[in-house]
Amino acid sequence: MTKQDNDTDIFHKAASDPSCFRALVERFRGRVMSIAWRITGNAEDAHDVAQETFIKLHRSLNAIERDRSGASYLYRIATNTALDHVRKRRRTVDIDSPEAAEAGHNPGESSEQRMENRELHGIIVRLAEKLPRKQRQVFTLRDLEGFEMAEIADILGIANVTVRVHLARARLKLKRLLMKQYPDLVRSYREDMS
Questions:
Q1: Residues 6+ apart with CB under 8 A from 101
Q2: Distance separating the N- and C-terminal Cα atoms of the chain
Q3: How would you class 63 by CB atoms within 10 Å of its CB: exposed for 0-12, middle for 13-18, buried for 19 or more?
Q4: Pick from 170, 177, 91, 180: which is nearest to 132 by CA?
């Protein structure tokens, strides 16, 4: 497998070549783990989700259409698998995990700022669990994972405008939840912005 291979070719080659599939897993494992962790909230569950995602991918490699991005197909499997896992387990987010400590770490931040950001991140992830499924998917992929709108539309198999609607609704609901459940945090943020 060479760097010149596009995603579609890589995924189609992986269907018949075990070494190519191993290389595919190595190439995409980090992003799949990141999606899984953002949705599940802890490393152990994220590892389970990533493993299940690649098993599902392996079983369905022949189903990937030639003109479709294999990466988008993989990210859709990862997102849906993670959401199913959360629904089954309904566990709380472990904001003290090492992965959470590293999430969004900025080298210029003081330890106090890192602690505050880690706490805020944990709050947002917990509140995002209360969003309807599609809104949670879009919010997670856009605001927590940094995917572009077109990529999210492709991953979820929905129109760009639908992505924008779900994202706007998710952000509005999260804002309302933050204001209702953490009014001091919202006031503090507004004062810091002044």
A1: 114, 118
A2: 53
A3: exposed
A4: 170
Residue 28 CA: distances (Å) to CA of 73, 77, 155: 12, 13, 14
Which residues are CB-neighbours of 6 under 8 A, at least 6 positions away? none
Measure the CA–CA gap between 133 and 130, rounded to whole angstroms. 9
Give the integer Cα–Cα distance in Å for 85 and 103.
Answer: 21
Count the Cβ atoms, other than its own, within 10 Å of residue 22. 12
- Both tokens of 188, joined, read 């503090």
Structure token pair of residue 49: 């989700």
pLDDT of 192 > 70? The answer is: no
What are the tens digits of pLDDT across the range 86-145? 777 653 444 444 444 444 445 555 677 777 777 777 888 888 888 998 999 899 888 888
Closest by Cα among 104, 82, 77 to 37: 82
CA dist 35 and 41 (Å) reads 10
Tally the C-alpha atoms within 13 A of residue 90's C-alpha that lie toward its C-beta: 3
- The answer to whether the CB of 93 falls within 8 A of the CB of 125 is yes
CB under 8 A, 24+ apart: contacts of 108-111: none
Cα 53 to chain centroid, rounded: 13
Q: Which residue has the tokens 């919202």?
A: 186
Residue 3 is given by DSSP the state T
